[in-house]
Amino acid sequence: MAIYVSGSLAFDRIMNFKGLFSDSILPDKIHNMNISFFVENLEEKRGGCAGNIAYSLALLGKSPIVLSAAGKDFDSYAKVMINLGLSLKGIKRVDNKFTAAAYINTDTHNNQLTAFCASALLEPCDHSFQQLDASKDLAVISPGNMEDMRTLVRKYAEAKVAYIYDPGQQIPVLSADELLDGVANSKILVSNDYELEMICKSTQKTKAELLSLGNCIITTLGENGSVIQDKKDYQTPLAVKAVPVSQVVDPTGAGDAFRSGLLFGLSEKTSIQKAAAFGATCAAYCVECAGTQEHVFTLKEFQQRYEKAFN
């Protein structure tokens, strides 16, 4: 059995500005801004949707194949992946570019200025599948290279491989037809409630109409858990609660962790409701840490936390 995780690999470079951005912005000069913010330190963390999903799957004992592209500065990231038992065979190395990076500057009121440099992520992974097994393989298509997001939908659909469709941040870039194609061939469409509204607006389809095309929609609602709606019984949604956390340190990456737990459950042939509960458990670990790949747990600890939360 293979689990394919496509999407972005990136470094998150995090800075904190000891002041307010608004104090340096002159409203009557916004047409001609030239502003510099002094920061004392920069912290680098591993990130990217595919990297985040693969990380938590590795903690859950799985060895997914990451499909993405990375640059000449990827060695430190690759070393961590290897130590986790993750394969690098699906990652295209682009030697003349840097790995994608998000430069995030936060002021004292938690306002953020972010610049995302795609760099190597502009290259498709060009992965050659030796064989796709519809009876065993699973996949998730998460935000990443646009060509990958289009071609993988077709490849998985042709091979009848069950995949989770998660267009996320790339929703504004994908055409209505591309979004509908991704939804129609997916096993599950996963998004938060805002992203789902964006998909509906872009495709001019209602949620019910989207569900009639695909098989299942899972809508994540942050601290309010998630809702599962199946095409066969659209009028009876299933609610999955969020798992209690000791403290909310950083919600960034919780959605990717949820997808990891969901994939884990599906790979173990559980019901979608139980798989979503695994997702909620995984997300709880993530929000308790600063960074998207800083949480750790053993399978035993994960099982105990899941059982405590869901009886």
TrEMBL record:
Q: Name one GO molecular function term.
A: kinase activity
State the UniProt keywords alphabetically.
Kinase, Transferase
A Pfam family this protein belongs to?
PfkB
Q: What PROSITE patterns would the database entry show?
A: PFKB_KINASES_1, PFKB_KINASES_2
SUPFAM superfamilies reported for this sequence: Ribokinase-like
Q: Where are the transmembrane segments?
A: none
Presence of keyword Thylakoid: no
Q: What region holds the Carbohydrate kinase PfkB domain?
A: 39-294
Instruction: Tell me which domain of life the UniProt entry assigns to the organism this sequence originates from.
Output: Bacteria
Check the record and name the InterPro entries matching this protein.
Carboh/pur_kinase_PfkB_CS (IPR002173), PfkB_dom (IPR011611), Ribokinase-like (IPR029056)
Q: Does the keyword Kinase apply?
A: yes
Q: PANTHER family given for it?
A: RIBOKINASE, SUGAR KINASE
Protein name in the entry: Adenosine kinase
- Native organism: Desulfovibrio litoralis DSM 11393
